[in-house]
């Protein structure tokens, strides 16, 4: 019985000795703590990059140094973790848990910082180009003058309103003579006759309200070549004629 207790105590001591050799806490945590500090510095610098563009060069140098340190640490750690060829059997090593890999934070931070700096540089370039471009001066010499609108001339139809020519001077055949003159000018004369009296000294034009002024003006010009024309007078709407001309005795001077 005493020998069995002694054997158990020796086994427990050997196990405790082996566990102390493989305890993760016995490993030096200094490289991991240093990396975590670098990661925290990178995060702080990334947040402050928008406040000062002038620090971008220093930040890039720090990022490069941190990346080199991480890569160097990874290489060193891989070398330490490679199994060594020995004839002596070794107790199984327990790989210490490092938590989150710092590369997962540093590498995206580097890309984010590069994109931010590139965007700031592109914006400054665009602003400088806009400020350097000269403002075009408007050319006032090539002002286009709108052409006046041409109103098409409406041709007056002199035959639209038939004329009744009446002799108001008492001279025989005067109504027929004036009829020929007006027809030669383009007017249409459908009646000739004598006026109610022969007391007219000036030639009178009577017309209804629907006869246009241009027609009356043309008629007055044609009669005024041979006779002295008085002002136009209105013709009753109940009249069978649209236009009446009463020839007077006074000739045109």
Sequence-ordered SSE layout with sheet pairings:
Elements lengths: L1 H21 L7 H19 L7 H26 L21 H30 L30 E5 L6 H11 L4 E6 L9 E4 L5 H12 L8 E2 L8 E5 L6
Low-confidence stretches: 17-27
What is the 3D form?
rod-shaped
Average pLDDT number = 75
How many domains make up the coordinates?
Answer: 2
Total of helices: 6
Spatial separation of the terminal alpha carbons? 174 Å
Using DSSP, what is the number of strands?
5
Overall structural class, as computed from helix and strand content, comes to: alpha/beta
Q: What is the share of helical residues?
A: 40-55%
Beta percentage is: 5-15%
State the major sheet.
5 strands, mixed
Order of helices and strands: HHHHEHEEHEE
Strand arrangement in the largest pleated sheet: 2-1-5-3-4
Gyration radius over CA: 61 Å
Structure description:
This protein is α/β, with parallel strands linked by helices. It has 2 domains: 2-79 and 98-130, no CATH class; 163-247, Alpha-Beta Plaits (2-Layer Sandwich), CATH 3.30.70.2390. The chain is 47% helix and 9% strand. It contains 6 helices and 5 strands. It has a 5-stranded mixed sheet with strand order 2-1-5-3-4, covered by helices on one side. Strand 3 (204-207), helix 6 and strand 4 form a beta-alpha-beta unit.
Question: Which short descriptors sum up this protein?
Answer:
alpha/beta; 5 strands; 253 residues; 6 helices; 2 domains; Alpha-Beta Plaits; single chain; rod-shaped
Quick structural summary:
The chain contains six helices and five strands. The protein is α/β, with parallel strands linked by helices. The chain has a five-stranded mixed sheet, with helices on one face.
């Amino acid at each position: 019985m005493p020998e069995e207790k002694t054997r158990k105590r020796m086994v427990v001591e050997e196990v405790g000795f082996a566990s102390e050799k493989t305890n993760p806490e016995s490993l030096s945590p200094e490289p991991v703590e240093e990396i975590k500090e670098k990661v925290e510095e990178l995060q702080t610098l990334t947040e402050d990059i928008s406040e000062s563009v002038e620090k971008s060069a220093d930040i890039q140098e720090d990022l490069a140094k941190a990346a080199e340190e991480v890569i160097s640490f990874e290489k060193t750690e891989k070398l330490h973790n490679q199994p060594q060829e020995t004839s002596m059997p070794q107790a199984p090593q327990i790989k210490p848990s490092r938590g989150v890999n710092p590369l997962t934070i540093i590498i995206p931070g580097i890309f984010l910082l590069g994109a931010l700096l590139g965007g700031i540089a592109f914006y400054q370039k665009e602003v400088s180009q806009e400020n350097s471009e000269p403002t075009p001066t408007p050319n006032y010499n090539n002002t286009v003058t709108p052409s006046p609108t041409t109103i098409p001339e409406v041709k007056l139809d002199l035959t639209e309103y038939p004329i009744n020519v009446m002799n108001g001077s008492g001279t025989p055949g005067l109504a027929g003579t004036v009829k020929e003159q007006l027809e030669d000018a383009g007017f249409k004369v459908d009646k000739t006759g004598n006026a109610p009296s022969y007391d007219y000294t000036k030639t009178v034009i009577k017309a209804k309200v629907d006869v246009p002024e241009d027609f009356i003006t043309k008629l007055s010009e044609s009669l005024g070549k041979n006779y002295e024309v008085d002002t136009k007078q209105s013709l009753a709407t109940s009249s069978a004629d649209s236009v009446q001309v009463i020839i007077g005795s006074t000739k045109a001077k």
